[in-house]
Structures are given as structure tokens and as C-alpha cells.
Write a structure and sequence with these properties.
alpha/beta, Protein-Tyrosine Phosphatase, Chain A, UDP-N-acetylmuramoyl-L-alanine:D-glutamate ligase, metal-binding, 425 residues, Mur_ligase_C_dom_sf, ligase
Amino acid sequence: MTFTKAQDVINYLYSLPKLHEKADLSYIKKVLTFLDNPQDKVKTVHVTGTNGKGSTSYYLSSLLQKAGQKTGLFVSPYVFEFNERIQLNGQNISDADLVKTANAVESALTKIRKTNNNFSLVTFEYEVVMAFFYFARKKCDYAVIEVGIGGEHDKTNVITPEVSIITTIGLDHEQIIGPTLQDIAREKSGIIKRNRPVVLGNISKEVLPIIQQKAQKEHATIKLLGKDFKISLQENLTYQDQNKKISFLPRPLVEGYDVGIAISAVSLLGVKLSAAEIKEAINQTKIPGRYQIVQNNPLVILDGAHNIQAMQNLLNFAHFEQKKKQGKVKVLIMMMKDKDIEQVFKLFKPEDEVYITTIDYPRAAKKKDFPTWIQEKYQYQADWETSFRSLKQKSQTNDILLVTGSFYLVGNILQMETKNAGSRS
């Protein structure tokens, strides 16, 4: 098969199976071998965590670029377009490069199928192989690689990174890498490699020993948030370690943790950055769909929080802002059927105005997929666009409107808002 258009590549990727019978790395390793192991030709930083791994990856990419490094970035999910998944120096992979890269992968698969006719990759494996091949072909100095799910068995775990990062450990994807928090910690600790340092974010005392034991076994030095570097939030967000203290533009404390992790990680890479350059790189970083303010008065915040920990962080921030603004917190939420719907909805305060919506996507929860008590308590409107417009219109200037629960909903609304802004200009 030969691709000629980017959309053909994307359609093909989504037609592939999602899982193999065996959850191992043998399939992806075989294809990478046929491509001359591109993952070994670029220095990498490997980032996992229940929450914050996307933000940390973006901050780290910005810092490396500021240090003059040619930097690849592999992240998920995307908000505007598929090409966001694979970036070079902050620019999405072009359609032409996407096609060229996919055809290179297809060439390797054709060779493998000469002896193994039924061989295929799952969607995420194919995307990971494309990213590594592209970064090697472009001769990146560094590539920041965000884990898909977990760590040890994740398809990205075919690298020996310069630094490993674990941002947080909470409950998400329990059916795949759980069921307990301890199971999830063990899975995520699988990205720690021998004699390679690891940076740890806001890890609870409950599971920290599991990570520490793995690091000790691999002779990996640890840099821990709260011990080796600190983040504080007074008027501004401030990072401090034994060598420097830097203040940044205000942002939620939980987002500040990701800033701190990224700065701590980049300091281990030996690239040169002044305090002024670090400040500039962080302040200029834009992370799509994460604590993204699209309007003030009323304050409209888009955030793809889709698990208990991320939603609690977002609501803490909203309620903190609410006290200053003396308005109401309104929430437009859409969730996937396989998420902890009931536990997420228990986080809302009685005074929060919560509205449920959905999108046209197979995994998206419809009204019948919500527990009965949620259906009875909260209003459901199937049309997300109508729901959003109506809520925005009804909100007072001192209200806070959160759009959350899924990056798919956030992406749809961002695209709609961008189109509207374009038509007004």
C-alpha cells in the first residue's frame, strides 16, 4: 500500500485494531528493527503520569528549543488536528512528511509480511513508529516522548531515555494497568532505566516507596518535587532549587508542578539556559486544551480533565477563583463511557451548575450511559454546540464556565471558537 494524502493515512490508522492479543512490545520492536532502530538515533526524555504528562512535555519541549536544541515532541491526544501528535520545534508534522513517514513504515511492514502474512500494528504502535522515524530522519537533538497509557507495557517504552519523568500517580485506566494505585505505580515505574535519572512530581506517600525501590534497583538517581525542587504560588508561580529561584506568570498550582518538573528535568540534560531564558520559554508555552482561557467576563476555561485527579484539580482552581469573583461555577461536561463517571460527578459541589452533553463518537457517553442518579440530578442536552452557546449566553460576567471531561469536546469547542473569531475578523 502507498499513501498519497494525509487524510488517507489518518483514516487507515483509525481502521487498525486498538489492541494485540499479547500486551507486549514484540510487534513494535520488530518494525523498528526493520527501520534500523530510529528510536536509538535521537536522545529522548520519557514522560508518564496519570495527569500532567502532556503539559510537562510541552514545557520541556519549549525549554529545549530555547536552549537551541532541535526538538521533537510526541503527545496525545490532539485538539485541532492529528498532526499535533508529532511536532518538530513546535510545528506540527506537515501533511507531506506525514505521508512520507507512513510510506516508510508501510515499506517495513511489506518486508515483514513476506514471512508473516498476518503481521500488523495497532493504531498507537503505528503512530509511535512514525514519530521515531520522523525524529531520526530530521536529526533531532532531543525528542520528548509522552507515554500513551501506563509505562512498562506502553508502546513508547522501547527507548533508553536521558531522563525519565513520572508526574503523578492516580486512578485512571484501572482496567488496563490497575486495579489498585500500587499496580498503577508499578506499571509507571517501568519507564525508569538503568543509570538514568528520574524526576518525580506530586507522588503520594502511599506509592512513593514503590517508585523509589525501582529507582534504587536500576541505580537511577531521583529528583523529587518538594524535596529537590519546590513550586510555590503567592502572587506569581515560583520555582526554586539549590541553584536558582525563578518567578513566572500566574497559573494554577497543579500546572506549576509540571513547570517545575520540566525545569528540573532539563537541568539534568546539561543544556545551557539562563534564568531569563527559562522564564521566557515557560511564559510563552501554550498548551492546547489545558486550563485554556478563551474568554473573560464570564471566565470560560477549557480543560480536557477526564479522570478523578484531573477533575479535582480543575474544580479546586475554579472554586478558588470563584471566591474572588463572587459568581457561580458552571460546568459543561462530556465523558467517555469507559471513564469513572460516577466518581467524577461526586466531586461537584451542590451549588455547582452542571450540564451534560455528548459528541458524535463511539466511546462518548450518551444519557443512558450515566448512572440513574446523575440522569435525574443534572440536565442533559445532546447537542454540545447548542449547550455551550446557551450556557455562555446565560452566564453573568462574574461566573466561571468550565468545559471539561474530554479533549474531544474541548477540541470541538476550540475549533468552533477559532472559526467564529476568524469570521468576525
